[in-house]
Design goal:
disordered N terminus; disordered C terminus
């Protein structure tokens, strides 16, 4: 069960949630991905957790390919798919119509596969490294998470493949506390 209580519990949650939703079957999907030009990281960074609304993001990115209510959290997830395999490229989580988390899935052809390049998008962040926690006793995760709770930014880095897998940004910890009151 997913619980989004604080910013620190969001580390990796967006990646896990989006991956689970991307694998979901039987979801209605729009055809907007084929009509939409490819999204890049600079466009994705226009999404501002805490201030961007669902309507703002529809104007910027168009209709999402998958919309799913996440019952455990009371949030709504949007997925934007790209490529011949319709892989998740960008996902958003909303609470009461306001963006709480954005997650960019890095493609092998992106310059952001390089950790230093990915970090350059967030010059104000002071990243701390955390190993992804074990969730399966039969599998040791080979990922490090570079995160900064003050800015709400995180980068998931595959240590085995030596590349960035995803970049996420949340409502920063201080803002999240104020929104909960």
């Amino acid at each position: 069960m997913l619980k989004l209580k604080s910013n620190s519990s969001l580390v990796g949650t967006a990646t896990c949630l989006s991956a689970a939703l991307a694998c979901a079957t039987g979801q209605s999907m729009s055809t907007s991905a084929s009509a939409r030009p490819p999204i890049n990281i600079l466009q994705a960074l226009q999404a501002h957790p805490g201030s961007s609304t669902a309507e703002d993001l529809k104007k910027t990115f168009g209709e999402p390919d998958i919309i799913k209510n996440v019952e455990q959290t009371g949030q709504e997830a949007w997925l934007y798919l790209e490529g011949p395999h319709r892989a998740t490229r960008l996902s958003f989580l909303f609470a009461t119509g306001t963006l709480t988390t954005a997650n960019w899935f890095v493609s092998d052809s992106d310059s952001d596969c390089n950790l230093a390049s990915a970090k350059e998008h967030f010059p104000a962040a002071h990243f701390q490294t955390h190993s992804r926690p074990w969730t399966n006793p039969h599998y040791a995760p080979a990922e490090d998470i570079y995160s900064d709770d003050k800015t709400g930014v995180g980068i998931v880095y595959s240590t085995s493949q030596q590349k960035v897998r995803s970049i996420y940004w949340n409502i920063p910890a201080g803002q999240l506390a104020r929104k909960d009151k």
